[in-house]
């Protein structure tokens, strides 16, 4: 059994310059989803930082009870966006979780999911794709429907039943890296590399295809280089910083070797992680300079399109939509205007703002699998905000949000769709 740890010890420990920047003003409380839901001080950024300081000073030990408060954090980084002291809370939490992981005090749920997904599937794109391919066969042959109707899920061991119940419907078409270049329409303005990543090409293949079409429509040659993989965000959030660094090096090597001018992603979570490769690899003498360049070249697809600027569509899309701000786009990257600029450029499209559009939907990476109860509560709150808009479609810009919101619509028996910003822009272009 792992022993409690007093004090932070490894090279990846939170730095005191980060940890002691918090002045306990409490301005973050109303923006923190877990505090909003629980009203508990220890489920707020301020409370979690107080526990970290106590451990750092040796006043308390890291115990499962303390770890439970840290693991309840969504790492949405809403607190960072409102913090007057500039506390880098996301970085502090990742480093704190690396300490927890080092002594084996992660929760049983996180250890189980880590072995299955973070440590086995994500670092190995071929293994991930094969696993997803088998799941797709399981779904398309009707086996999943039979298993669920027969209630066999309750007999499956080790939490497998819970994981199965959360499986989304997989994309009918997978997307992936290729040697081919997707050529610009008309005179080329720029050559860009697109991150395919891990989950999105398997779960939202059509959205990745739409991203390519939108970029080529806006005069960009698009490369999806071979050799790339997961951005490393999920491993980093779980405290496995070494695996996250290895993934970052792989992407730097593959994407920068293409000789492109920009690196584009249609995943808010990936973009946030990639823009922070410079921080992640700052102690690596071989990659530190390349990581700075890589981070500076990285842009979210909505950010990039607005900066070009993109071609406003001329065809009408008569539809009422609402927009959900992905946490790692709004809070980590501070990008809120670009997606709305694109949506408002589409003739006939009515954008109705939902209440608390930037409050986390609960789909934070692996959070629905390791913290299902609170994830569901946050989703219920988000669905109420969506319902109040009477929107026909929900638009967002992150794969995790898309999966979570689709689950919310399905649980309510609703026929509405969840789509990425580029999906609806691509639709408007296709009507011309």
Concise summary:
This protein has 432 residues and is an alpha/beta fold. 49% of the residues lie in helices and 9% in strands.
Number of domains: 4
Secondary-structure-derived class: alpha/beta
Uncertain stretches: none
Task: Bin the helical content.
Answer: 40-55%
Q: Compute the number of helices.
A: 24
What is the straight-line distance between the termini? 64 Å
Strand % is 5-15%
Architecture of the largest domain, according to CATH? Up-down Bundle
Mean pLDDT over the residues: 91
Shape: globular
Instruction: Name the strands of the widest sheet in spatial order.
Output: 3-5-4-6-7
Largest β sheet strand count, sense and barrel closure = 5 strands, mixed
CATH class value of the largest domain: Mainly Alpha
CATH overall fold name of the largest domain: Glutathione S-transferase Yfyf (Class Pi), Chain A, domain 2
Query: Could you give the count of β-strands?
Result: 11
- How large is the radius of gyration? 21 Å
């Amino acid at each position: 059994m792992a022993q409690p740890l007093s004090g932070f010890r490894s090279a990846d420990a939170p730095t005191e310059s980060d940890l002691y920047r918090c002045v306990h003003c409490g301005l973050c409380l109303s923006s923190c989803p877990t505090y909003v839901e629980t009203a508990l001080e220890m489920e707020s950024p301020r409370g979690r930082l107080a526990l970290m300081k106590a451990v750092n000073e040796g006043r308390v030990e890291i115990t499962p009870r303390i770890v439970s408060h840290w693991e309840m954090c969504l790492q949405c980084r809403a607190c960072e966006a409102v913090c007057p002291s500039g506390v880098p809370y996301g970085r502090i939490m990742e480093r704190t979780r690396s300490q927890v992981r080092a002594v084996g005090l992660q929760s049983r749920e996180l250890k189980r999911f880590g072995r299955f997904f973070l440590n086995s599937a994500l670092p190995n794109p071929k293994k991930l794709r094969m696993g997803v391919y088998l799941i797709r066969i399981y779904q398309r042959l009707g086996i999943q429907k039979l298993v669920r109707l027969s209630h066999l899920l309750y007999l499956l061991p080790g939490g497998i039943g819970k994981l199965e119940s959360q499986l989304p419907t997989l994309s009918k078409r997978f997307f992936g890296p290729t040697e081919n270049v997707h050529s610009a329409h008309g005179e080329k303005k720029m050559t860009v590399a697109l991150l395919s990543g891990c989950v999105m090409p398997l779960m939202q293949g059509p959205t990745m295809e739409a991203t390519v079409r939108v970029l080529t429509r806006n005069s960009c040659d698009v490369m999806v280089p071979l050799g790339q993989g997961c951005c490393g965000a999920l491993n980093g959030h779980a405290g496995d910083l070494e695996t996250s660094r290895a993934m970052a090096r792989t992407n730097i090597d593959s994407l920068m070797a293409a000789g492109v001018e920009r690196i584009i992603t249609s995943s808010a979570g990936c973009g946030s992680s990639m823009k922070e490769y410079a921080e992640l690899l700052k102690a690596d003498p071989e990659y530190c300079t390349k990581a700075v360049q890589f981070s500076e070249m990285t842009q979210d697809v909505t950010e990039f399109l607005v900066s070009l600027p993109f071609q406003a569509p001329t065809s009408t899309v008569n539809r009422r939509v609402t927009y959900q701000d992905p946490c790692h786009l709004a809070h980590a990257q501070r990008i809120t205007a670009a997606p709305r600029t694109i949506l408002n450029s589409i003739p006939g499209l009515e954008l109705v703002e939902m209440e608390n559009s930037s409050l986390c939907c609960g789909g934070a990476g692996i959070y629905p699998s390791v913290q299902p109860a609170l994830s569901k509560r946050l989703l219920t709150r988000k669905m109420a905000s969506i319902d109040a808009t009477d929107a026909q479609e929900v638009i967002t810009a992150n794969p995790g949000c898309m999966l979570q919101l689709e689950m919310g619509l399905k649980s309510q028996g609703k026929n509405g769709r969840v789509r990425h910003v580029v999906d609806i822009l691509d639709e408007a272009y296709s009507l011309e």
